[in-house]
Write a structure and sequence with these properties.
Elements: H1 3-11, H2 20-28, H3 36-45, H4 52-61, H5 75-86, H6 94-110, H7 115-127, H8 131-149, E1 161-162, H9 166-175, E2 184-185, E3 190-199, E4 202-208
Helix pairs in contact: 1-8, 2-4, 3-4, 4-8, 5-6, 6-7, 7-8
Amino acid sequence: MTVLMSVLSVSTLLARTPDNDDIYAKIADSASPYYYPNLKMRYDQWITPMSSEEMHYLYYGYAYQPEYKPLDNNPYLTRVLEIMAKIAIEEPAVSDLDELVITAMSSYERDPFSPQILNILAYAYGALGDKAREKAFYERLNGVLEIIGTSGDGLKEKSPMHITMFGHALDYIASKGWNYGKARVISRTVEYVPFEVARNKVKGFYFDFSRIYWNKPENYTFKRERTWQFNNLKPREYK
């Protein structure tokens, strides 16, 4: 069993609903161990893995940062998907990998917690032989998926998992190797994503997307990015 699947299998046992007041107080306090600039610097450098507690404040604290613009178009993500569609996964050309890394890092700047992009960067660096960066991006990936999975059980509207981007919900499901149907909004803050095939009698997950619309421009119409699957980009196990 891979590290990724191990994280996901236990995540719902450690549910922790994000407390927005607590998160803001901690990330805005320069004396706090969760002061946001310091957390983000550690995340970007990733010299040593971050704790679940640090990742919790980092992921949900991002919603308070000026660079958090979840409704903006991300042209780099579109290009990343175009590159992935043409690349030979098992024997990729170095030129394709170099372009993939550059473009994916530009997308990372727009959405540093995208499981999709983190997974692709881990793959690209691994294929280039950079094992240190490959491991670092897989650790980031596992950390983000764990935080989403521990924010609620996702089984009911009243206990949804909390996301900061719509795509993160689909990525979370895709990371399990499951196919999903069309998401539908069921309230002002919660959407439901059905599975194509029920899992242990569970037909889908509920996700709280409220943070995405905190600063929604007037008359804005959201258009979803193209979705994806993990496909052959399998997470690796590190001991």
